UniProtKB/TrEMBL annotation, chain A:
A single GO molecular function term of this UniProt record: electron transfer activity
Coarse class of the protein's main subcellular location: periplasm
Cellular localisation: Periplasm
Organism taxonomic ancestry: Bacteria, Pseudomonadati, Pseudomonadota, Alphaproteobacteria, Hyphomicrobiales
PROSITE patterns from the UniProt entry: PROKAR_LIPOPROTEIN
Identification of the protein by name: Cupredoxin family copper-binding protein
UniProtKB/TrEMBL annotation, chain B:
Organism: Stappia albiluteola
Protein keywords: Signal
Lineage, opening ranks: Bacteria, Pseudomonadati, Pseudomonadota, Alphaproteobacteria, Hyphomicrobiales
Residues making up the signal peptide according to the UniProt record: 1-24
InterPro entries: DUF4142
Residue ranges of every copy of the DUF4142 domain listed in the record: 29-170
Name of the protein described by the UniProt record: DUF4142 domain-containing protein
Tagged with keyword Signal: yes
Domain of life: Bacteria
């Protein structure tokens, strides 16, 4: 079973989907990458610090998503070669899956700063 | 191990008609392989449209949407490759058998509704992906000679294998019984 563990319920609401306009220095964290390849999230579990971002990149022909199990965050559809960058502001752990291929699962662990 | 006769027999089951073993035993050229792979994807898209028209089950509808999305993406790549290589895929006995078999299946499916439709669709998707995957893995990939076609077939196989697993889960979830 998929389960979600939230810390104070604050984690997920605090995630900000950055727009293309960002990148002018306002972001102080580190950007990590999760590659979607051969129907797997690589790495399947990633540990980052609060304030860091993850860029999800799809290298498959088939479109995928990275969608938090309760829908709290979502890259939405990523076609081949597309990427989506999500910033994780607060500590906590969340499980996610691909909305199109539900057996594809991953986990983001956000440690306090 | 892979055995062309087995594929011929299996393809005949899917096609709902007998295919002379010679069809599957004969080596296929790149243009025939491209044609059949493309056809198999298109047929699955047609099944999926039928499912979206007839099913009210969320898991079936989600699966069908994924089939349309993924097989369209794979076939778009195939069209891009064909266009780049300036070649025309070649119709062949296996493509024709698949088309004929799928038309017969669709004729059966349109008479069904509710759970009967869902189960028939789900089981057919599982069987269809099993056969297509055996054929792509055991015949198309080894017989293809053009590198980009071989590579596309390998990527497609990863996709279709994910579909097979997904179909397996869908069949289980529907509790259709044996
Ligand atoms: Cu996916």
């Amino acid at each position: 079973m998929l389960r979600i563990r939230k810390i104070g319920g604050a984690l997920l609401g605090a995630i900000i989907l950055l727009t293309a306009a960002c990148g002018n220095g306002a972001f102080a964290g580190e950007t990590h990458q999760v590659v979607i390849e051969r129907f797997e999230f690589v790495p399947a579990t990633i540990t980052i610090r609060a304030g860091d971002a993850i860029e999800f990149v799809n290298r498959d022909i088939a479109p995928h998503t990275a969608t938090e199990v309760e829908g709290e965050w979502d890259t939405t559809e990523l076609a081949k070669g597309q990427a989506s960058r999500l910033e994780f502001a607060a500590a906590g752990t969340s499980d996610y899956f691909c909305a199109f291929h539900p057996h594809m699962k991953g986990k983001v662990i956000v440690t306090p700063q | 191990m892979f055995n062309t006769l087995k594929i011929a027999a299996a393809a005949a089951v899917v096609a709902g008609s007998f295919i002379a073993p010679a069809v599957a035993e004969d080596k296929m050229n790149d243009l025939e392989i491209a044609h059949t792979a493309y056809t198999a994807g298109n047929l699955d898209i047609r099944y999926a449209h039928l499912a979206l028209a007839l099913s009210e089950d969320a898991s079936v509808r989600e699966f069908a949407s994924t089939m349309i999305r993924d097989h369209s993406a794979v076939n778009d790549e195939a069209v891009a490759l064909i266009t780049k290589l300036k070649v025309t895929p070649q119709d062949n006995g296996l493509s024709q058998a698949l088309v004929k078999g799928a038309a017969e299946k669709r004729a059966e499916f349109v008479k069904l509704s509710g759970k009967a439709f869902d189960c028939a669709y789900a089981k057919n998707e599982l069987g269809y992906h099993q056969i297509v995957n055996q054929t792509v893995e055991g015949k198309f990939i080894p017989e293809a000679t053009v590198a980009p076609l071989k590579d596309l077939l390998k990527s497609a196989l990863v996709t279709f294998k994910a579909h097979e697993k997904h179909a397996e889960n869908m069949v289980k979830g529907l509790n259709c019984g044996a």
